[in-house]
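[Automated response] Your request has been received and processed.

Submitted sequence:
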Amino acid sequence: MALSATINLLTASLVVAISGGLRVYVAFLLSGKNVNISIPLVMILIVYSTYTLDRTINCAEDEINRTEESNANKFFPYFLLCICLLCAILILIQNRIFPLIALFPIIMGFMYTKGFKIGDFSIKLKKGRGIKNFFVAFTWALTIIFLIYPADNLSLFLIFILFFIKSFINTVIFDFKDIKGDSRAGLKTIPVYFGELKAKLLLHLIQSSFHIVLIVLAIFGLIKFELFILFYSWIGGIIYILLYANSKKTIFRGIVVHGEWAHMLIFRSLVI
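Generated structure:
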């Protein structure tokens, strides 16, 4: 039982980690820079470490939402995430990128899960009504910008907003499946606070409005983003919001939502 729980804990973040690496790859394409393949690898290691840490540190709602990991041996996840972080730092040093970038998501992740307290002052980012989604999205969008810097300022800004919105939407979609545990723990996530229908409409509004703006800018030549990536991101977002912005349990949610960048790049290689 403990072995199965440990394996589940160690492998649970693999899909989202690979998705993080592919996001950096796409960010390189949007910025017009040559892809340095070691940088997406760094992102995979950082994302895996951050999400494995989040799953390893238990909190009230996780005990309800993730009962299959309750008996996991915590030594192996901690050991593995330390190895991943060390490898990420060494690769960043080799590429002459500030190595402490690798620790930024880990610090934000710890503050998200456990919070930070000095005397009477305390802060915890795992709050409701979109606060936690904002900080998660901000963390990953800013990390992507750190990793692809330098580039054109306008491109960097729009890439930041794009991945901020995509990450925000993805985190809200995964909040839908945790409505039961979050409600019991008193955590008012966006699906809990607005209800499933209104929350889904909000995601469609955010996703479509920004993509339409980017597509118009690209069509008129004001930005040099690939139209294929923009259209695929827009349509793909519409589809997985329609399919997975609900509380139904399905194994395909993570594959489709986080796998967006994988099939985007596959179709791109066939079309372009």
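Summary generated for your ticket: Residues 2-271 form one domain. Strands lie at 116-118, 121-123.
If you did not submit this request, please reply to this message.
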